[in-house]
Amino acid sequence: MKVIYNKYFPFGSFLATNIFGIIFCRSDKGRLSEIDKNHEYIHSLQQREMLFLGFMLWYSIEWLWRYVKCRNWMKAYHDLYFEREAYMMEGDLAYRHHRKPFAWMMFVPKGSLLHKIGSFFGDLAAFVRKDFLWGKYLFAFVLAVSIIIAQLHFHIYDLIIAPTFDDGTSMLRIPLIFITVYFLVLIPSLAMHHELWRLRRWQVWVFPVILLTIDGAGQGFYGYVHWAETHGVTLKDQCYLRLLGSYMFRSVFIVLLLCVFRWLTEGRFGLFGLKRSGKYLRVYALIYVLLLPMFLMVSFTPQFLSFYPIMHIDFYDGALGWERWQLIGLFEAFYINDYIGVEGMFRGALVIGMARWLGCRAVLPMALAYMCIHLGKPDLELCSSVIGGYILGVLAWRTRHLWGGIIIHLGIALFFEAVGITRLLLL
Predict the structure, then answer these.
(1) Backbone angles phi, psi at 329, to 5 degrees
(2) pLDDT tens digit string along 375-385?
């Protein structure tokens, strides 16, 4: 534990503070005693198990909440759950050796939302401790950055994928990209964990190929466009049918995906992992609500304004002779279905399903493959998709259900659609 003595930080009456495991101490207030060091070491353990940023976020929000209640900043500080554990156990110099993870949770009322939030962070941290290897995650990071750079600077979606929709080869090329990225992460990951024996199971090869082929082919199927052209459909109707078809025909592939997933899991996790489970639902809803202001700001950036809403009503107004609400309603119904299918594919089949043969190693390859379906979308969405996909994958693996992904993922998509459509209708 590194201690940095200085004249200025921390401010006020505090002797020391712990930031990311580094202790900053005021030199004009003396040296740290063994008890003080033990107090700060307990904070280091708390920060590690909360993955540092989680600790900072919880600490700040809880202090602010308590300060609003009591209007006394020192009382708010001493009432913090992290501080209660540290002050109670600082005199036990051997505590660090027998402390149980998330010991501060004993002060949180069981069954409360705060207790569920703590358990939520606990599940994330427990997974990272179980799965993390520097080499493995560095390799995945480099691969993700390479894909992002290839898209941002070389526009690989426009060069490699977009032209293939017209000649029909997109149904082959898109699945090939997904499969390549998936195994490019999976095989080195298993090698670094000395678990190459998992590759002897035929399911590890066959099921991801089947699943990613079905999903990629569903995204790449555009044969209905030529049908519309040959049957004399008007240009505006063609545009709407093409938009609708990209999600409508995906529904057919989702049915195939459902059959494979049930085969994969022998029906143990219901439809796509949509089993009856309420674990963390309130936490997911809270996360979504807290993120809404950020989504609102992002929705007015130039790239998002040019991409959303996907149902750009001005382009399709009057198509098929329908009213606006009918055009929007039908599209959004298939749009929602598509997002449920995406969760069922990536968090359901590739995580919950493949966990039977890959355990927790199923999450990271899924996250990189999931990022690839965001090629061609706004840059911020592409970059954040790998992080969001990884977190949702971890939670699906821990909870064995998909409600978190559906609440957050579908909620974000519908929010951008709603903001975009509202903006167009008000113009």
Answers:
(1) -60, -45
(2) 988 888 899 99
